[in-house]
C-alpha cells in the first residue's frame, strides 16, 4: 500500500498475467576482483582450462576481474585482501599449508567469499574449517550420465534463472554428509532419474551458507568441459560469484520444517475483490489492482512465513498478515491486519521492509540486504505472539509489536496486487508453525450448539461478528476441536458492561473445568482486549469444547474469537541475563545469544567443556529449547535446569548433533536457570550460538 492507494472499499482489484523473465536486468555491479585457484594434489580435471576461460568471459561481461593461479603462495593475508571472493575450481587434495590455511580462514571469517566448484569438495579432508566452508566432502560418483536436478530455491542469484526441473549431463557426486543442517540447499538431484546415487530422496547438489562474516557457495556441477559452455551453468557460476562477493544477497540460513502454501499449486488460495494472479512456472504474477490474494485454508498464530518476491521498476506490493476473513473486500486486510511493504520509493514508513504506516524498516540494514528492482528477494516474517520481526534476505530489518486492541497478528495471510502500473511476482510461499495454536483461531460466533448467546454484528470484530448477548449461565459449544496437548486458552473479548468469567470445559456444558479466565470491562463496547489463562487436565485428541459464562448482572461481554495454545511462543530467555564459561574474545559475549538476532553470537574458547546459561527471572515449566548454531557447534551437549543457578539437573542429553538449528521440544522441567553444557565440539573451534531460546509456561 503506498501513495498511489485509492481510498474506499470500492477500489478496483485487478490481477492478471505478467511475463516473467528468466533473469533480472540489473544495473552493472560495482567492479570487483576474483581469485581463481585450481591447484590439484589428486585427480586432475581436464575441464580446468575451460572453467578458467568461462570465468574470464563472465568477468569481462559482468564487472569483475579474474586472476587465475595454481600457486598456493597467493594465500597470504595481504594478497587475499584485494579479492572479493576466491573460487576453488576443481581443486583436489591438500593444496594449502598451515600458514596459508590460517590466512584463508581469517579472510573468509572476516567477510571474504568462497565459491567451490565440483571437486572443491574433494579437497582438504583433514582441515575442519574447510569442511565447514565447503559444506560437505566428496564420497563417490557413478559414471557420467544425464540427470534431472530439482531447483529448490528459485530466488538465489545462482538458481533463480533455472527451471523447476533442470535436465543436464555431468559427473554426479555423492557426499559423505548431507549439508542441509548447516547450509541452505538450492537444488537437489532426483536419484530416480539416474543410476548410482546413494543419498536417497534428499541429495543436495548446490548450496550456500554464511561463515562468520563471509559467504560460501558450492555447486557440484562442473566435471565436464561441456559444462562450461552450458548457458544455465555459466549463469549459475555468475550468480554464485555475485553472492559470495556481496553483489547479490540471499537468505542462506539453513531452512528445515517449512510447509509450502504456494509452490505451484493454488489450492486454498482465494481472490478478494476483482482481478486475479496468473500461475505459471510456480510463479504468481500480478497486474491491475488494488486487490488481495489470500490463503483461506487456515488462520495462523506464531509462525515463520517465508516468501520469495520480485518487483519491476518502482512497483508496489506487500504481504498482509493478521486479518480476518475478508470475503470480497480487500480493505478488511488493510484496516484490520498489517502489511509488510514492498516499494522502492515512498516515505520511510511506506517503503520496503516497513510495517506499512506503523513502523519504518531499519533503512541502513534494509539497503545493505536489498536486491534491486528486477531481482528476487526473500522475506521472513517471524510472528511470535503480538511481535513480528522482518528479515530481508536473512538480515533483520524491522521489529514491531502490536499494541492496538483493534488489530491482531493472528489470522490469515495474503499478497497484494496493487495497480495496473505495479508488477509483482511471488514464488515459494512457505510457513513453519512454532507450536502456538493447536487448531487455529476459532471464531466464537461459529458455535455448533449454544444456549442463550447469539452472533452479533460488530465493527472491529474479526470476521465482522462476535458472540454476543452473553448472560450468566449461557454457554456455547464447538465440536471437533483438537485439544490434545493444549496448555493454554486465549480469547479476544470486548465489554462495556460488568465483565465476568469464561470457563473452558470439554464433554458437556457441565463437564470438567480446565481453566477459568476473567473478562474485565475493556473500556467500551468497541475496545477489544485479549485475555488468557492456563489449562489443566485437557484430554487427548479431539473433543467438543464448551465455553460457559459466569458473572453478575446482564450484558456481561462479547467474545470475538478464541484459541487453544500449546506451550508459549514467548521466548523466556529474550534479553535476560546470560553468562558463559568463557569467551573467544570480548566481541562475542553470552548476551549475544539471547538478543533475538541471527547475526550476533556468543563464542567460547577452543576447548571442552564449555557452558552458557540464562536467568529467566522467575520459575517456569520449560517445554522447549531452541539453539541456532554458527559454523562452530556442539556435537554433544546437555540441556540442564536449575532453581538457583548452583544445583543443576540434566533435562536432555544430546549426542551426534551436526549444527544448524537444534529445536528441542517435549521438555518438562521446572527452572529459573537453563544451561547448555557442551561436552564435545563439532569442530576444532569453540561453541558458537546465534540464538539460545527458551519456551514454557
From TrEMBL:
Residues covered by the F5/8 type C domain: 557-697
Signal peptide range: 1-24
GO MF, one annotated term: hydrolase activity
InterPro entries, A to Z: AL/BT2_dom, CBM6, Cellulose-bd_IV, Class_I_gatase-like, FA58C, Galactose-bd-like_sf, ThuA-like, TonB_box_CS
CBM6 domain ranges (all copies): 440-565
Keyword Signal: yes
Keyword hit for Ubl conjugation: no
Keywords: Signal
Full protein name: Uncharacterized protein
Gene source species: Virgisporangium aliadipatigenens
